[in-house]
Design goal:
- The chain folds into 2 domains: 283 residues, Zn peptidases (Aminopeptidase, 3-Layer(aba) Sandwich); 186 residues, Glucose Oxidase, domain 1, CATH 3.50.30.30.
- It is built from 12 helices and 24 strands.
- The chain is of the alpha/beta class and 540 residues long.
- The protein is elongated and about 80 Å long.
- Strands 3, 4, 13, 16, 17, 20, 21, 22, 23 and 24 form a 10-stranded mixed beta sheet that branches.
- About 8% of the residues have low confidence.
Length: 540
Amino acid sequence: MCGDSMGAMPMPSLTLLRPRARVEHAALGAALALLIGACAPRTTVVAAADAAGFAPTADELKRDLYAFADDSMRGRESGTIDEHRAAAFLADRIRLLGLEPAGDSGFFQRVPLTRTELSPQTTVVVTMPNGTTRALKVGPEVAPAPSLGPGAPAPKRFADAELVFAQYGIVNKKLDRDDFAGVDAKGKILVMVLDAPPNADSVQKTMYAGPNGIAPRFTSAMQHGVAGIVLVCLGKGAELYGPASSQFLHAVTPRDTSRAPSEDERPLPPVIFASEAAAGALVPAGWPVRANAQFAAGTKLRVRVVATRTQVTDYNVVGIVRGSDAALAKSYVAVGAHLDHDGIRSGESPDSIANGADDDGSGSVTALAIARAAMQAPRTKRSWLFVWHTAEEKGLLGSDYFTAHPTVPIDSIAAQLNADMVGRNGDDSLYIVGPASAPKSQSVVLGGVVDSVNAAMTRPFTFDRSFDSPTHPERIYFRSDHYHYAKLGVPIIFFTTGLHPDYHKVTDSPEKIGYPKMARVATLMWQVGVAVANRSTRPK
């Protein structure tokens, strides 16, 4: 899931989290060509049977997830050969299942991207009034932003100025806080703590310690004419540093062949995320016990950001199971998941590979199991469209590209069922997002189908609808691939078992998945898809 992805962090005007030497190696190109050349669909004849008998199983999900989230996939990071390896794995599996290729190159849809990577020449150095210096480690301790996302102005690459501290960087009358009061920040590098103050309520804590608290701080800082911005991730906000550093060290954005702007053409100051490990150098001594703690006069920060840009190609994986009805087969039930994750996270333990077993290995292999069921069961009237999106963690880029360049008419998609993180958190709870979040009530009827199918299951889920609001502080509706389909009027349901302590960490591994529950989620999605695929009318 994107950002705070479930990948890139959703922010007004800024894409800060949802990360290149050239990666289209000859060997990979040959492998993809072989797969593409072997993509001829095959026909499987099956006897009529109850579709429920073909439902996904815990055994197949476990088998596939241990392969897909294995260390050999190296975290499946977008813009790398590891993402290509994951895409090839999925394409090979659906080829063997007999799906019909539906990309622009066999099962692959090419997604043109730009990878921006911080150079080892990037430096962030604190200088004390007595002249001693501390060079902060880029990656483990600090992550300067080479860019702030598609459409955002470019930040400057250099700064050398005094440090000034503004506590949490919050202006909120209800909390009786104005952290900028008495702070002379003009022309200085402003440090703020990305966490919530102790007197914040639960909603405010979610806001100020999460990705949605970044933009207000940024706006306030800019109003004070700062020379740079440092956000130190502490407390609950410490969870944001891993995704932020992953994004900034090697960012991925839509393809951009324009000239990189000069320093004079960059209107924004440098932006730096800092981890807890850097707090000793970037938070004044005595804070928060001394609320008015400030840096010693003459404490400076020198920033030098050096980055390279490389044009790369990632891949959505797309396949079709053709329906049986001559008319209805021209419309589709779409099943989606994202195939990418965070890649290598240096300096973390127990190892450095972010396997992304739940996020979104669980959704990817769930979609595989549904594809297998759709191929082996009696054909539904409508067709099935399976899309494994790339670069979700970099800002929903793969789904954005697919919906802008669909390989089937976008208005032929009757519904989109999205699986993102469906393998954790107890036995019977399941979050459903869409009926109340999607615009113009376009997912209400589809939500009713989900409710009916769930109620008829031997062991129904207890649906948690708390995330199903476009104004929820976590903004879950905006943070996975269904969002781009919903924007175009497609009814969507987002299935997720929710966040957990291993979210976007190297500890999100296959042995922590609850495979029996995951099989029940996959079965629910499969049966919802069958119900929609056999309806005479669309769920809208």
